[in-house]
Write a structure and sequence with these properties.
4 strands, 4-stranded parallel β-sheet, Rossmann fold, globular, 9% strand, 10 helices, alpha/beta, 281 residues
């Protein structure tokens, strides 16, 4: 048995649980006799420049606390990645100590379907769009070397696509999710008959609809006159205005209304953290 933890670069540098886990690595009652940490390092975490996200040059520097060896490897070179992973596994088996593999790579698209990285990382993403994808780069090399033929490569791609398509089709047949064993058991007597927790009461927090509409309209506008705004962001603001008109809210607009209503009462709101500047959270 070998424990492998997969991390993102910003998470590895920023989550306290990573530091805590390293400090468990050599405790007699907690050790796993060495964990392999694989960091998928796209160099911006979610949307943030590294200089805004951490104080050390590498996201993996936190591993120095237990003197774990750290291998930085170019993820565009699959053979180098395989070599480094073999060395990491051998280190772990030989010395029963933690080891870190830092896959230095990039993310071709956004963090999720709502994220457009050109908003926050335009220079980086101009470079990324010019990059040949690693699969094509490596396939071209193997075909040029005569290791595989173009036909063999295309058959492998088709086989993988087929596996994904068949799994997707099968997923539509599942009508019942068997996840009860993942969920906590309900606590008897915790709620009263109206479904309210017995020991807690919440004061009413509602506000008038015209105030919500006002906040929605402000949150859908550009505060500076003649400010040239990115067309993608204009589309988001238009959609937000439309939602306000239709008395519908999504998560982001709900947050605007919460913050806006607190501000209207003269209470200062300060957001701090990696992704607040572009309004992600």
């Amino acid at each position: 048995v070998m424990s492998i933890l997969l991390h993102g670069d910003a998470a590895f540098a920023g989550q306290g649980v990573v530091y805590e886990t390293f400090h468990l690595s050599d405790l007699p009652s907690y050790t796993t006799n060495g964990t392999i940490h694989v960091v998928v390092n796209n160099q911006i975490g979610f949307t943030t420049d590294p200089r805004m996200a951490r104080s050390s040059p590498y996201p993996t520097d936190v591993a120095r606390v237990v003197n774990a060896p750290i291998f930085h490897v170019n993820a565009d070179d699959p053979e180098a990645v395989m070599y480094v992973c073999s060395v990491a596994a051998e280190w772990r088996n030989t010395f029963n100590k933690d080891v870190v593999v830092d896959l230095v790579c990039y993310r071709r698209r956004g963090h999720n379907e709502m994220d457009e990285p050109m908003f926050t990382q335009p220079l980086m993403y101009k470079q990324i769009h010019k990059q040949v994808p690693v699969l094509k780069k490596y396939a071209d090399k193997l075909i040029a070397d005569g290791t595989v033929t173009l036909q063999e490569f295309e058959e492998e791609i088709a086989k993988y696509d087929r596996i994904c398509e068949e799994a997707y089709a099968r997923s539509k047949d599942n009508k019942i999710l068997h996840i009860k064993h993942w969920l906590d058991s309900p606590w008897p007597g915790f709620f009263n008959v109206d479904g309210e927790p017995k020991s807690m009461s919440c004061p009413p927090t509602g506000i008038a609809e015209d105030l919500l509409t006002h906040i929605g309209n402000v949150a859908s506008s550009v505060p500076v006159k003649d400010f040239k705004i990115h067309s993608g962001l204009s589309r988001i603001l238009r959609a937000r205005l439309e939602m306000t008109k239709n008395r519908v809210v999504d998560w982001a607009l709900a947050e605007y209304m919460a913050f806006g209503s607190v501000l209207k009462e003269g209470i200062h709101v300060r957001l701090s953290g990696q992704d607040v500047e572009r309004g992600t959270f």
